[in-house]
Amino acid sequence: MSQTEERAEGAGPFTTRLTWRLMDGGTAVWESRLARKRGLLTVQAAGELEPRSRRADSVSVGRLRRLNAIAAGAFTVGGALFALGAGGAQFGSDDVTGAWIYFAGGLFFNTGGYASLLQVINAPRRDSGAGALAARSWRWWSYEPDRIDWLSTFLLFVGTLVFGINLLNSLLQGLSVQQVNRLIWAPDMVGCILFLASGHLALVEVCHGRPGVRLRDLGWWIVAINQLGSVLFLGSALAAFTRPATGSVVNVDIANWGTLTGALCFSVGGVFQFFERP
């Protein structure tokens, strides 16, 4: 069945929404986030007044549900552990205990990041001729930097791994000020920047171009809350720099409260994500 593509939307080299006309005179609309999160394509047949959602096959839907549950649960628990660690640091708990709590939270963030990437890799792809979503064989990895959803989740996953380096190094004892800044603070900053870049791409994806406000879109709320968490993490990281001259942190209160509130944002985003499923 042949079709004529009508309109592509997105930003730069990335396409986030495609609208095309089917041979029977109807139209089909593919949206990047809607397809990979809910497994849905919007189709309006010729003569119909309202468009309807067309769901992907049961295999694809089952995959999306499982991966979504893993990612949502991992970010919810990981964010809660980070908040617990930051709260303990602020109110005087043992440094070693706090470091281990952070490290455990980091493992959950790693899991959530990889599950999010797998959801993109194994999302059903559009069959333009049939006006439907087609299943793909399961894959553990792909390289698709021309896709905005892949690039966003890849940066997110790499960011969680860099945070893991930061958290692992924080378990080391007897570090000098220079070593603390190089082994702990620097990876923290890199991870925050990767999170921010990932969140910006996610906003572009959900808004189909320039980031804006979409209060009725659950996906927008999830992305916006997570991006706020990334901003708070960045503020925390900047405040956690250790001054070489004095050996003191720039502002320990901002560092702790920034981590705590940023982590809660990711935890709330994880809870919301449970509802963004097929």
What would the keywords be for this entry?
278 residues, alpha+beta, 2 domains, 5-stranded antiparallel sheet, two-stranded antiparallel ribbon
Q: How would you describe what is shown here?
A:
This protein has two domains: 4-55, no CATH class; 58-273. The two termini are 27 Å apart. Helix 2 (58-90) runs antiparallel to helix 7 (252-273), helix 3 (95-121) runs antiparallel to helix 4 (148-169) and helix 6 packs antiparallel against helix 7. With 278 residues, the protein is of the alpha+beta class. A five-stranded antiparallel sheet has the order 1-2-3-4-5. The chain has helices at residues 32-38, 58-90, 95-121, 148-169, 177-207, 218-239, 252-273, and strands at residues 4-11, 14-21, 27-31, 40-44, 52-55, 125-127, 132-134. Helix content is 59%, strand content 13%. It is elongated and about 75 Å long.
Summarize the structure.
The chain is of the alpha+beta class.
For the secondary structure, the number of strands is: 7
Helix-strand pattern: EEEHEEHHEEHHHH
Alpha plus pi helix count: 7
Cα-based radius of gyration, to the nearest Å: 21 Å
The level of helicity is: 55-70%
Counting structural domains, the number is 2
What is the strand content? 5-15%
Low-confidence stretches: none
Tell me, what's the shape?
elongated
Strand order of the largest sheet: 1-2-3-4-5
The pLDDT mean sits at 91
Structural class by secondary-structure content: alpha+beta
End-to-end separation in angstroms reads 27 Å
